[in-house]
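Entry 14. Structure prediction run on the chain below.
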Amino acid sequence: MKNNQFDSQFHALHTDGLLMLPNCWDAGSARLAAASGARALATSSAAVAWSHGYADGGQLPADLLLSTVSGIQRRSGLPLSIDIEDGYADDPERVAALVGAVIDAGAVGINIEDGAQAPELLVRKIAAVRRVADQRGVKLFINARCDVFLRQLLEPQQRVQETARRAQLYRDAGADGLFAPFISAEDEIRALAAATPLPLNVLAVPGLPAPQRLLELGARRLSAGSALSESMFACVQRSMQHFMRSGEPYAADLPKLDYGQLNGLMQDDGHN
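Output returned:
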C-alpha cells in the first residue's frame, strides 16, 4: 500500500507554504493535476458524482466512490485525499467502515463535513474514523469541513467565533485540519487562522485574496472545489453543441489538447 509512504508526506505539506489542491474527479484529471504541478491530490465530491452521472449530495453509490479512489491511486504518485461529504451516513460506525475502505483503496486523507447537523455528530464521526485509521496504522489526515460560512448558519459577525468553537471540538475528536468554505474576507481569515492550531483550508471563491496573501493571513491550504470540473463540463457541453450544429469537433473559441498531447500525459510513468 502507498498509504505508509504518503501519510506523513501529506501532513508535512500543510506546514510548507500554501498547499494548493486542483481538485480532481478521476485518474485522468489526477494525471493532469500532477502535470500542472500539484504536490498532492484531492477529489471534489460534486466532481466525482458528476463524472459518474449522479448529482452531488450523498447520491453517489459507495462502490463508485471506492473505484474512483482505486483508479486515481493506481495511476498516481502523489498523496490522495478524498471528499466523503458527511460520510454518507449519520451512524459514526458506518462512516468509519466507509473510511476504512477508502484507506484500503489508497487514500491518506479525507474531507468530512458537518453540514446543517449539530457539530456533536461530526465529533462522533471523527472519533470513529480516527480509531479505524489508527487500527490500520495510517496517519489519516482528517480535514473537518465546517459549513457555518457556506450555509450562513449565523449572522456574519458570529461566524468566525462559531467556526473556531467547532474547530476546537473537531480537533479534540482527532481532526487534523479545518476547512471553512466561503470565508473570504481578510480580517475573518486572519482571525480564524489565529483562533485554531489546525491548518486552515479555504475555498477558491470570487473575492478571495491571492495565494501569497492567504499564506500571510495564516491559511495553509487552498482548494479549487468543484470549479475545475464545472469548467471542464462547460467546455465539453459547448463542444458537443458546436458539433451537433456544424459537424465540426472543435469550437474555435475553446482551448484543446490534441490527441498526441493528451495521450502523452497519460503514458506510463511507473504508476499502473
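The chain has a mean pLDDT of 95.
Filed with the rest of this week's runs.
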